[in-house]
Amino acid sequence: MTTLRKVMLVDDEEDIRAIGKLSLSRVGGWVTVLAASGNEALTKAAEEQPDLILLDVMMPGMDGPTTFNRLREQDATARTPIIFMTAKVQKQEVARYLELGAVGVIGKPFDPMTLPKEIRKLVPE
């Protein structure tokens, strides 16, 4: 069981970050940290120590799976639960993300009103 207080959303699209922040903070009741890139995620995750990271798969520069592996190499985030967020939710894609060690995959676009409920299903509090 993980107590979720602080959730980090990593997505290169500003509108996704804005909608995600509203959903996570207002509907979910969590402190929300945003990052716009894999590199920013590595720095902010180490500083902020989120209880959960929502990670976009397709980002310019460092993509989600690469960012995931780098987060796992940092002591501060080696055991932080990570959920991938992607429009590509075919079975083989989802299986690949779960094999990496993600706790789950949430499809995009997501419903801001139900996103926290989807997260709680994957990471029970």
Highest CATH level, the class? Alpha Beta
Q: CATH homologous superfamily?
A: Response regulator
Q: What portion of residues belong to β-strands? A: 15-25%
Tally of extended strands?
Answer: 5
Fraction of residues in H or I helices = 40-55%
Element order: H for helix, E for strand: EHEHEHEHEH
Spans with pLDDT under 50 lasting ≥5 residues? none
- CATH architecture call: 3-Layer(aba) Sandwich
Q: What is the count of structural domains?
A: 1
Distance between the termini: 5 Å
Instruction: Could you tell me the CATH topology label.
Output: Rossmann fold
General description of the model:
This protein is of the alpha/beta class and 125 residues long. It has a single domain (6-119), classed as 3-Layer(aba) Sandwich (Rossmann fold), CATH 3.40.50. It has 5 helices and 5 strands; from the N terminus they run βαβαβαβαβα. The protein has helices at residues 14-27, 38-48, 64-73, 91-100, 115-122; strands spanning 6-10, 31-35, 52-56, 82-86, 104-107. The chain has a 5-stranded parallel sheet, sandwiched between helices. α2 runs parallel beside α3 (64-73). The N and C termini lie close together (5 Å).
Give keywords.
Rossmann fold; single chain; 125 residues; 5-stranded parallel sheet; alpha/beta; 5 helices
List the helices and strands and how they pair.
Elements: E1 6-10, H1 14-27, E2 31-35, H2 38-48, E3 52-56, H3 64-73, E4 82-86, H4 91-100, E5 104-107, H5 115-122
Parallel strand pairs: 1-2, 1-3, 3-4, 4-5
